[in-house]
Write a structure and sequence with these properties.
five-stranded parallel sheet, about 50% helix
Length: about 220
C-alpha cells in the first residue's frame, strides 16, 4: 500500500493532487504538509512514506535546497517537484539534484495521475510537452558535482549546513539541534572538507546556489 506526502501551501492544489493520487494507485494513503518543516517532521515520524510531491516555492523551501535536504536526509523517499515554473533549465537542474519527476502546476488531472503512477513504479516522469526541451537543456555548470557533494553529507551535517546558510552562529545551531557546540564544530569541519569550502561563508554560499526565483519574481530563502 503506497503512501504519498503532498507538500504544498495551497489547500486547493493539495486537494487536486490528492484526487490525482486516488486515481493513480489502489489503496493509496496520503498525508499533507504546508511547510518544509512539516515535511521533515512527517518524514521523521513516518517511515512508510514512499513519495513526496514537493512544491518548489512553499514556505521554508529554498528552491532546490528543499529537494537537496530531503534527498540527503531521506534518501529512500522519492521526491517529485511541483511548480508553476516550466523553465526547462530549472527542470534539468531538479533532475540533476535527484528529483524523480517534475509536475507543472498547469498539468491536468490526467497528467498528475500519470506522474504519480510512474514514479511509484520507479520510473522518472516529465510532462510530455517539456521532455524534448529538457533533454536539450544543458546541466548548470558545476551542478552535477554540487549534487554529489551535497549527497555525501550525513543528514545531521546537512541540517547544520542549512542553519549556517541562514546565518546562525555555532551556539545557536547547537541550541537548535540540541547538541553540544563542539559537535557543531566537528560537523562543520566535515562539511568544509566534503564541499571544498574554506569557511562557513563559502559553505553557505554553496547551498544558496540552489535558490530559485518563482514565476512571480520572489526568491525563496
Amino acid at each position: 500500500m503506497p503512501t504519498l506526502l503532498i507538500a504544498d501551501d495551497h489547500p486547493l492544489f493539495r486537494a487536486a493532487l490528492r484526487g490525482a493520487a486516488d486515481e493513480a494507485a489502489e489503496d493509496i494513503q496520503t498525508c499533507e504538509a504546508g511547510t518544509l518543516d512539516e515535511v521533515v517532521a512527517t518524514l521523521e515520524s513516518r517511515a512508510d512514506v514512499d513519495l513526496v510531491l514537493l512544491d518548489l516555492h512553499m514556505p521554508g523551501n529554498h528552491g532546490l535546497a528543499g529537494l537537496a535536504a530531503l534527498r540527503a536526509q531521506f534518501p529512500a523517499v522519492a521526491v517529485v517537484l511541483v511548480s508553476a515554473n516550466e523553465d526547462p533549465q530549472i527542470v534539468r537542474r531538479a533532475l540533476d539534484h535527484g528529483a524523480a519527476g517534475y509536475i507543472p502546476k498547469s498539468a491536468g488531472l490526467d497528467e498528475m495521475r500519470d506522474a504519480i503512477r510512474a514514479v511509484l513504479d520507479c520510473q522518472q516522469w516529465l510532462p510530455p510537452a517539456l521532455r524534448g526541451a529538457v533533454a536539450r537543456a544543458e546541466s548548470a555548470p558545476g551542478d552535477a558535482d554540487l549534487a554529489a557533494r551535497l549527497a555525501s553529507l550525513t543528514p545531521q551535517q546537512f541540517r547544520v549546513l542549512a542553519l549556517v546558510a541562514e546565518g546562525l552562529l555555532n551556539k545557536q545551531i547547537a541550541d537548535r539541534l540540541d547538541v553540544q557546540e563542539r559537535t557543531v564544530k566537528a560537523h562543520l569541519s566535515a562539511i568544509f572538507e566534503k564541499l571544498g569550502a574554506r569557511n562557513r561563508t563559502q559553505a553557505g554560499v554553496i547551498l544558496r546556489r540552489l535558490e530559485i526565483s518563482d514565476p512571480a519574481g520572489r526568491v525563496e530563502g
